[in-house]
Amino acid sequence: MTGRSFCIANAQEKKLSCKEGFEGVSAEEIRDWADKGWKSGGSSVTFDSHIHVWGDGTQPYPYDNDPPDVLRKICDAEKFVANAKNAQVSGALIVQPINYRFDHSYVASVIARYPKFFTGMALADPAVEPVKAESYLRNLKKDGFVALRFNPYLWNGSMADESGKAIYAKAGELGMPVGVMCFKGLPQHMPDIKSLLEHSSDTKLIVDHWGFFRQPATGGTDPKTSVSEDAWNDLLSLSKYPQVYVKISALFRVSGEQEPYSDLKPRLDDLLKHFGPSRLMWGSDYPFAIVNGGYCASVQTLRSWQDSVGLSDRDFDQIAGKTAAELFGRS
């Protein structure tokens, strides 16, 4: 047992408590927890690298398209902070939800309200002209967005087109990592990803959700899903690019089991061998996680890995928060 109280030497005896849900947390407690923000020590160092939050769709933040009914009114920022407090999670990266498409005003308002707790990943607009890429990104940075998401399904063709390459390269110049959301599987997007990587080696690229190696990405316990080893090997092959990172997030999407998602342990071992802990980061995919096993299922699985996978204190800290903190300006 080290002297660092936030390290979990024995997952069964030492793991932090995690109370499911947001009930029982007052508005004052929400504000206090958010004001503490990222901690470099103490009993909680977990940073969630992948969440979405949204309002109820009414003005001044109307939806571009509706979220699932079950998630419509339980996913605002305050409810996430309450969930995070109950789970002992100290901060999060908000990934712009597709509900608002390219209107970033709701997420920007959340970051402004809780700047110590939240930071943001904007959604790239393929319609931005290459000559306007810098001003476009600088405006997003002013609103608290430190990273950018490429959703290939929003492009009419290749996301490595002239606009995509211009935005990607300028993001690197401005220190904004780019996440890639290959929801329908990594293999079909590998040519574009390699083209972007070779176009700008300075831009850090993040592969979402273990590369979505299980398809369809609706939830791994669905009997219609299956693992693609080709997709997995594609993901591992990207480790040769030192600027590529992987989110070990949305565990429920890629595991074929319930918590603690034991079938992911060999996959995690693979990623550790190829990428190392400094290029891996945990994330939940909240709020979808809360209707797929619960937020605590993701948080406690992360914390159990220190014992069950044999992570050192240092490696656990890196995956649990420090990789994300370093990438997203929280270190």
Description of the structure:
By secondary structure, this protein is α/β, with parallel strands linked by helices. The protein contains twelve helices and ten strands. It has helices at 11-14, 27-36, 77-87, 105-113, 133-142, 162-173, 190-199, 229-237, 251-254, 265-274, 295-308, 313-327, and strands at 46-51, 89-95, 118-123, 145-150, 178-180, 205-207, 214-215, 226-227, 244-249, 280-283. It has an eight-stranded parallel β-sheet. A two-stranded antiparallel sheet has the order 7-8. The chain is globular.
Summarize the structure.
The chain is 36% helix and 14% strand. It has twelve helices and ten strands.
Largest sheet: 8 strands, parallel
Task: Identify low-pLDDT runs.
Answer: 1-14, 40-44
Order of helices and strands: HHEHEHEHEHEHEEEHEHHEHH
State the helicity in percent bands. Answer: 25-40%
Query: Which strand-content bin applies to the residues?
Result: 5-15%
Main sheet strand line-up: 1-2-3-4-5-6-9-10
Structural class: alpha/beta
Radius of gyration using CA atoms only: 19 Å
Descriptive key words:
disordered N terminus, 12 helices, 8-stranded parallel sheet, 36% helix, two-stranded antiparallel sheet, alpha/beta, globular, 331 residues, single chain
Layout of helices and strands:
Elements: H1 11-14, H2 27-36, E1 46-51, H3 77-87, E2 89-95, H4 105-113, E3 118-123, H5 133-142, E4 145-150, H6 162-173, E5 178-180, H7 190-199, E6 205-207, E7 214-215, E8 226-227, H8 229-237, E9 244-249, H9 251-254, H10 265-274, E10 280-283, H11 295-308, H12 313-327
Parallel strand pairs: 1-2, 2-3, 3-4, 4-5, 5-6, 6-9, 9-10
Antiparallel strand pairs: 7-8
Helix pairs in contact: 2-3
